[in-house]
Amino acid sequence: MDVLYGVHPVAEALKAGRRRFDHVMVAAERHDDRLARLVADCKQAGVRVRQEPREHLTHLAGTAAHQGVVALVRPQEALAIEDLFTAPDPSQPRLLLALDGVEDPQNLGALLRVADGAGVDGVVLTERRAAPLSPVAVKASAGASEHLRIARVVNLVRALQELKGQNIWVIGLDERGTSDYDQFDFSGDCVLVLGREGAGLHDLVRRTCDHLLRIPMAGGVSSLNVSTAGAVVLYEAARQRRAAARQPSNARHGAAPESKKKQKGLGS
């Protein structure tokens, strides 16, 4: 069983319907409308609810930040990279996010929350030397992780090459990039690759990218936190894709954008 804690993560897992709940425990000391709504939703979904002392919930969650709600649920179904080859809506271009060894569960959770908000179709995580999809990460995502298609891979370079084989452009974000992120056309099929805190992309991952983009910095600090950088670029991609969707179909399927006419250098 996995442990979920916090009102939002438990509520979103219930709403997403991807997890099988064993039961939900709520703090006997907490009485408010927000908790009452969650309990009512659990009962409507046929999920057992038990009252427990707050100390017991803290012991199960491993933290006092559980907000008086802890759920025991079945693990999420593991996805393979092949499961991300197609978008939920086949008529729309694919937008994926790949994380190259993000180690902080708070950053992972924040990125998953951004990915859900920006309309990302799937997320690729590495199995080793990276933060797991732990209760801390799920809590940091405010439950957004429950709505995302997430694939775990052993070898990120191989996974990116497989995505290339599906005509998906691999776009790395790196402070050594040669183009600004807002000058790139994100309206087609692409996967954005973000690197480790501090160290950035691994060399092999960087060389696998079709394009390397940067976020220009006007101050004395050379880069942003990975979750902030991801938010900046993913919402630019979402903006462009909304604008493209408003165009007539003949305009959307016209000549290839300039960024995609360039040679696929950088390791391709």
UniProtKB/TrEMBL annotation:
<dbReference type="InterPro" id="IPR029028">
    <property type="entry name" value="Alpha/beta_knot_MTases"/>
</dbReference>
<protein>
    <submittedName>
        <fullName>23S rRNA (Guanosine(2251)-2'-O)-methyltransferase RlmB</fullName>
    </submittedName>
</protein>
<keyword id="KW-0489">Methyltransferase</keyword>
<dbReference type="GO" id="GO:0003723">
    <property type="term" value="F:RNA binding"/>
</dbReference>
<feature type="domain" description="RNA 2-O ribose methyltransferase substrate binding">
    <location>
        <begin position="3"/>
        <end position="79"/>
    </location>
</feature>
<dbReference type="GO" id="GO:0008173">
    <property type="term" value="F:RNA methyltransferase activity"/>
</dbReference>
<dbReference type="Pfam" id="PF00588">
    <property type="entry name" value="SpoU_methylase"/>
</dbReference>
<dbReference type="InterPro" id="IPR029064">
    <property type="entry name" value="Ribosomal_eL30-like_sf"/>
</dbReference>
<feature type="region of interest" description="Disordered">
    <location>
        <begin position="243"/>
        <end position="268"/>
    </location>
</feature>
<dbReference type="GO" id="GO:0032259">
    <property type="term" value="P:methylation"/>
</dbReference>
<dbReference type="GO" id="GO:0005829">
    <property type="term" value="C:cytosol"/>
</dbReference>
<dbReference type="InterPro" id="IPR001537">
    <property type="entry name" value="SpoU_MeTrfase"/>
</dbReference>
<dbReference type="Pfam" id="PF08032">
    <property type="entry name" value="SpoU_sub_bind"/>
</dbReference>
<dbReference type="InterPro" id="IPR013123">
    <property type="entry name" value="SpoU_subst-bd"/>
</dbReference>
<keyword id="KW-0808">Transferase</keyword>
<dbReference type="GO" id="GO:0006396">
    <property type="term" value="P:RNA processing"/>
</dbReference>
<dbReference type="InterPro" id="IPR004441">
    <property type="entry name" value="rRNA_MeTrfase_TrmH"/>
</dbReference>
<dbReference type="InterPro" id="IPR029026">
    <property type="entry name" value="tRNA_m1G_MTases_N"/>
</dbReference>
